[in-house]
């Protein structure tokens, strides 16, 4: 751990705080009375300021300080939550983010950034009702001096040293303040020439309270330090002790005041001062004589030490009732007490290692099966189970709630709705749904695009909405949930829905479909994902940024996910993204075709059925079979990947002998029957069958990305290495199902067309 | 902590913290040792003191005075380093008058 | 034997920087991220000093100090509280809870070292 690491922590931490600040700001507008939210906003600014100070990031400190001032006024009720205030603080939030960016990049803020800082500080001050020109209290406070400065009039004493007179209050020890510790601290910047420890006040045995402090000290102290430094040594006991500090060559009156102000007898104190070497005997004699004379004449000393001290010590603690009342943020707000921060790279490395472990363990399992030794099989199965557990917990480590990603859209929706002049509210559900960190990181952009698309094209203008009998404000919904081994993320709006005819017209105009093509609603909706498609009559700066819906689909496909649309004209649209829970490891179902092995993600496997010759015959050459009354389209993996027939297995001598010895009929039965199996897979509500030779059972798989060579290989999403060292391709089931569905609908279309032309 | 009472020479060993945290208990032990000592001499062994603060220092002063008030003599012996440091800092070695190792004062 | 300090703050970077400074000066440092975490770390250990922020999630500094001071082992342990210049009200509350030493945020590492040295030297 060094300072650079700490600075990195600061950057991460600040970003998180700014995120929660932003979230709280957006929520506080709706519930201005929520003190927890205000406290959260305050704490974010407060924490950033505190840490920035440690790193000497003065520009961050002074900027945040101004924000904190205003927030403090909000906290104490002096300022109310207004739209204006929230808007300003959102800008402040953004700007702080910018400052943090500079810190991360190690760059100095630009002139513009400084100007922006000044501008925002001006706005903050105006909001706080303070003239912008008013000088800001410096962030680093200087303590007010404990005593008046030593004005050098009259004749000073000879001593070159400081004199410290300390009387500690009864409670200091109970408060954890050890008088000798302060004295020890003095020795870090000066030398104690003489010290007299006053123990007279300690009561006799039984009466003494062992936890009470009775000590006093008179110290002759030699140091080059200034008065403030010496005073500050006692800052923590200022309220609980009488501290007098006399600089070198103080005038004799000051010592007199000291003597008068202290409880001990004058003579004893005088003695002590002499013993300390602070005063000479002559000096003290003269002084006491002068004082006695003054007292005789009835004059009051102009400045009795006691009075002075009394004046110094008074520092009434202003009890801010509002602050006291303010309750702390609810405990449930952040249940992250025991969280530790882990470098994501280390975590990924850890997961990779576990991947290797899974492969190794599968290898051992296969080897154990071959040997058939019961003990080995038992041990291998125990290890398998443990590895499985480790895999699960490791994957769990990478799971993050989608809530934080969703919450970012509060801001987007707020800003965009203002910009385009539509009143749109965001509703979030399923925020606690967890998915893999890598997926979360990559889903932000597609999601942003969908949200903006919905706001821009989906939700109608207020007048139109009212005319359609809808509330004037539009509602955008973000929802997430787990669904059969994948996660579904929905972006829904209650807008106009996809305009079927307009999409079709546009597609025809663009040459994406032929004018005579018959398309289902779903197919028409999906046209918006075609490259270069945009129905918006006017391209504005939100959706028309050159990124089309085709890019959205491409991004999602790259995550082994898919997107589907449900839309009803006039009612609204739901875009549903489906993504795998994790990108790293899957539970697979291993199948064999010829000599090749394939892995089907287990969560997509519905069942396995035998493909009988009867069924093949019944299919009449079409690639579909009748599964309990339902038509199930299927794909032959052998055809898809062009796998040659496996040569007939070598027969052992014994088998040959056996076959030779039996009669013909029996020999036929003993022939290995070429039997195919269908693995029924399900994805996003669609089913298809995969025709394979062998079912090899469940198999845990680490997905390795396909190299450049295999990129573009249809129907495959990755590969893995089996325990035997053999490579198995991982099937891209969503892709395959889409393929089946496409060819199905093509065929249906042709059929329909036939019917139309007929 | 070893204690022997009702003997001519009472002795008490203080070990570990001689601080505000232990002051209440140690005060009783010190007073007990002094009060129950029939002879004239009490010896307090400080060799095992690992930490001492102002509270410990006050107790030392109190014990010394309490013994004296009963006409007994109390000696601290085998001062551990933390004790010596403190006596040195407060310049109190002379007050207790016990033989201590002479060490040069740390000067800052 | 090095003196051990418990630092309680919800800012990891603050704990890290203060930790670096204190360790450099010869103290041992244990970190806690909030009052609740800190309380759980008090058992079985002797801290010579506690440095705690006031405003923290889960359990704030004042509640933590109050709770710590209930424990015999920490009844008299010195506490430095970290506060803002705006936190005078909190200061009174903290004083009542037994926290007498206050350091105002933002501070430089050297300021913290000096504050600690006043109470305990390494």
From TrEMBL, chain A:
One Pfam entry name: H-kinase_dim
**What is this protein's name?**
Chemotaxis protein CheA
* Occurrences of domain HPt (ranges): 1-103
Matching entries from InterPro entries are given as: Bact_Chemotaxis_CheA, CheA-like_dim, CheA-like_homodim_sf, CheW-like_dom_sf, CheW-lke_dom, HATPase_C_sf, HATPase_dom, His_kinase_dom
Q: Which reaction does it catalyse?
A: ATP + protein L-histidine = ADP + protein N-phospho-L-histidine
The segments labelled Disordered in the record are 130-154
The EC designation for this entry is 2.7.13.3
Named from the GO MF annotations, one term is: phosphorelay sensor kinase activity
Domain (CheW-like) ranges: 585-742
Q: Which PANTHER family match?
A: CHEMOTAXIS PROTEIN CHEA, SENSOR HISTIDINE KINASE CHEA
Q: Which residues carry this modification: Phosphohistidine?
A: 46
> Where in this chain does the record put each Histidine kinase domain?
383-583
Enumerate the Gene Ontology biological process terms: chemotaxis
Arranged from A to Z, the UniProt key words for this protein are: ATP-binding, Chemotaxis, Kinase, Nucleotide-binding, Phosphoprotein, Transferase, Two-component regulatory system
Basic and acidic residues compositional bias: what residue ranges? 140-150
Q: Which domain of life is it from?
A: Bacteria
Q: Name one GO cellular component term.
A: cytoplasm
What is the role of this chain?
Involved in the transmission of sensory signals from the chemoreceptors to the flagellar motors. CheA is autophosphorylated; it can transfer its phosphate group to either CheB or CheY.
Automatic annotation (TrEMBL), chain B:
- The entry's protein name is Anti-anti-sigma factor
Q: Which organism is it from?
A: Azonexus fungiphilus
SUPFAM superfamilies xref list: SpoIIaa-like
Q: What is the lineage of its organism?
A: Bacteria, Pseudomonadati, Pseudomonadota, Betaproteobacteria, Rhodocyclales
InterPro entries given for it?
Answer: MlaB-like_STAS (IPR058548), MlaB_ABC_Transporter (IPR052746), STAS_dom (IPR002645), STAS_dom_sf (IPR036513)
Pfam families linked: STAS_2
Q: Which domain of life is it from?
A: Bacteria
Tell me the CDD domains matching this sequence: STAS_anti-anti-sigma_factors
Where's the STAS domain? Answer: 1-108
TrEMBL record, chain C:
Where are the 4-aspartylphosphate modifications? 53
Q: Which SUPFAM superfamilies match?
A: CheY-like
Which keywords label this protein? Phosphoprotein
What the entry lists under Pfam families is as follows: Response_reg
Q: Identify the InterPro entries for this entry.
A: Bact_response_regulator (IPR050595), CheY-like_superfamily (IPR011006), Sig_transdc_resp-reg_receiver (IPR001789)
Q: Domain Response regulatory spans what residues?
A: 4-120
Sorted alphabetically, which PROSITE patterns does this protein's record hold?
RESPONSE_REGULATORY (PS50110)
Which N-terminal stretch is annotated as signal sequence?
none
Q: Which GO terms describe its biological process?
A: phosphorelay signal transduction system
Name of this chain's protein: Two-component system chemotaxis response regulator CheY
Cite the source lineage. Bacteria, Pseudomonadati, Pseudomonadota, Betaproteobacteria, Rhodocyclales
């Amino acid at each position: 751990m060094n300072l650079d690491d700490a600075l990195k922590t600061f950057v991460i931490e600040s970003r998180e705080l700014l995120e929660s600040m932003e979230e709280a700001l957006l929520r506080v507008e709706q519930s201005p009375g929520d003190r927890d939210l205000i406290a959260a906003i305050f704490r974010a600014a407060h924490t950033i300021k505190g840490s920035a100070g440690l790193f000497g990031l003065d520009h961050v400190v002074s900027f945040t300080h101004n924000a904190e001032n205003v927030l403090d006024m909000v906290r104490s009720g002096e300022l109310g939550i207004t739209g204006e205030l929230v808007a300003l603080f959102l800008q402040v939030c953004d700007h702080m983010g910018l400052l943090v960016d500079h810190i991360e990049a190690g760059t100095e803020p630009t002139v513009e950034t400084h100007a922006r800082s000044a501008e925002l500080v001006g706005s903050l001050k105006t909001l706080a009702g303070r003239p912008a020109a008013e000088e800001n209290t410096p962030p680093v406070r200087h303590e007010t001096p404990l005593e008046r400065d030593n004005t050098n009039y009259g004749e000073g004493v000879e001593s070159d040293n400081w004199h410290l007179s300390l009387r500690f209050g009864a409670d200091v020890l109970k408060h954890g303040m050890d008088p000798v510790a302060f004295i020890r601290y003095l020795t870090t910047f000066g030398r104690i020439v003489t010290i007299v420890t006053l123990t007279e006040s300690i009561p006799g045995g039984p009466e003494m309270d062992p936890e009470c402090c009775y000590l006093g000290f008179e110290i002759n102290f030699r140091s080059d330090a200034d008065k403030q430094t010496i005073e500050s040594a006692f800052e923590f006991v200022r309220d609980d002790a009488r501290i007098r500090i006399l600089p070198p060559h103080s005038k004799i009156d000051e010592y007199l005041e000291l003597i008068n102000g202290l409880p001990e007898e004058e003579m004893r104190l005088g003695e002590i001062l002499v013993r300390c070497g602070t005063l000479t005997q002559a000096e003290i004699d003269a002084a006491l004589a002068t004082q006695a004379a003054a007292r005789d004449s009835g004059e009051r000393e102009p400045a009795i030490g006691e009075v002075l001290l009394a004046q110094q010590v008074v520092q009434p603690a202003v009890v801010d009732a509002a602050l006291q009342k303010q309750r702390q943020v609810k405990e449930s707000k952040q249940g992250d007490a025991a969280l530790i921060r882990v470098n994501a790279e280390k975590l990924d490395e850890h997961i990779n290692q576990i991947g290797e472990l899974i492969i190794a363990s599968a290898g051992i399992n296969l080897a154990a099966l071959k040997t058939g030794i019961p003990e080995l099989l038992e041990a291998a199965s125990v290890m398998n189970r443990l590895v499985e557990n480790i895999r699960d917990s490791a994957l769990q480590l990478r799971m993050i709630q989608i809530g934080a990603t969703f919450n970012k859209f509060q801001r987007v929706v707020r800003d965009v709705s203002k910009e385009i002049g539509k009143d749109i509210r965001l509703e979030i559900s399923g925020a606690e749904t967890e998915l893999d960190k890598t997926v979360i990181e990559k889903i932000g952009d597609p999601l942003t695009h969908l949200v903006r698309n919905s706001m821009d094209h989906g939700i109608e203008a207020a007048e139109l909405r009212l005319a359609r009998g809808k509330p004037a404000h539009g509602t955008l919904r973000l929802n997430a949930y787990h669904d059969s081994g994948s996660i579904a993320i929905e972006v829904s709006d209650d807008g106009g829905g996809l305009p079927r005819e307009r999409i079709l017209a546009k597609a025809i105009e663009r040459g994406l479909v032929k004018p005579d093509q018959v398309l289902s609603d779903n197919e028409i909706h999906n046209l918006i994902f075609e490259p270069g498609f945009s129905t918006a009559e006017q391209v504005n700066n939100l959706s028309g940024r050159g990124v089309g819906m085709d890019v959205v689909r491409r991004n999602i496909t790259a995550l082994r996910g898919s997107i589907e649309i449900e839309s009803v004209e006039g009612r609204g649209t739901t875009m549903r993204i489906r993504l795998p829970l994790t990108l790293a490891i899957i539970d697979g179902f291993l199948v064999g075709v010829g000599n090749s092995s394939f892995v089907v993600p287990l969560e997509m496997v519905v069942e396995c059925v035998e493909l009988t010759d009867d069924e093949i015959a019944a299919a009449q050459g079409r690639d579909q079979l009748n599964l309990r009354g339902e038509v199930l389209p299927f794909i032959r993996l052998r055809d898809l990947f062009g796998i040659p027939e496996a040569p007939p297995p070598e027969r052992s001598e014994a088998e040959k002998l056996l076959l030779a010895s039996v009669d013909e009929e029996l020999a036929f039965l003993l022939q290995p029957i070429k039997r195919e199996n269908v693995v029924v897979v399900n994805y996003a509500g669609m089913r298809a069958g995969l025709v394979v030779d062998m079912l090899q059972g469940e198999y845990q798989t680490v997905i390795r990305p396909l190299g450049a060579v295999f990129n573009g290989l249809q129907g495959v999403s990755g590969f893995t290495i089996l325990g035997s060292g053999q490579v198995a391709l991982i099937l891209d089931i969503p892709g395959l199902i889409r393929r089946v569905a496409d060819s199905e609908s093509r065929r249906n279309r042709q059929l329909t067309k036939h019917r139309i032309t007929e | 902590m070893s204690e022997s009472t009702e003997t001519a020479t009472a002795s008490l060993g203080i070990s570990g913290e001689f601080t505000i945290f232990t002051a209440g208990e140690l005060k009783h032990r010190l007073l007990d040792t002094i009060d129950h000592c029939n002879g004239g001499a009490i010896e307090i062994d400080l060799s095992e003191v690992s930490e001492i603060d102002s509270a410990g220092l006050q107790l030392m002063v109190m014990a010394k005075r309490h013994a004296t008030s009963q006409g007994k003599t109390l000696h601290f012996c085998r001062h551990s380093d933390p004790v010596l440091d403190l006596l040195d800092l407060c310049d109190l070695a002379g007050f207790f008058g016990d033989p201590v190792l002479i060490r040069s004062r740390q000067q800052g | 034997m090095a003196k051990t300090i418990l630092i309680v703050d919800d800012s990891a970077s603050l704990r890290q920087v203060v930790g670096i400074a204190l360790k450099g000066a010869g103290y041992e440092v244990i970190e806690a991220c909030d009052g609740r975490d800190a309380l759980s770390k008090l058992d079985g250990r002797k801290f010579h000093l506690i440095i705690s922020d006031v405003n923290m999630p889960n359990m704030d500094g004042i509640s933590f100090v109050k709770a710590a001071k209930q424990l015999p082992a920490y009844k008299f342990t010195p506490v430095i509280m970290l506060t803002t210049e705006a936190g005078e009200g909190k200061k009174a509350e903290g004083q009542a809870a037994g926290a007498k030493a206050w350091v105002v945020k933002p501070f430089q590492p050297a300021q913290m070292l000096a504050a600690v040295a006043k109470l305990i030297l390494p």
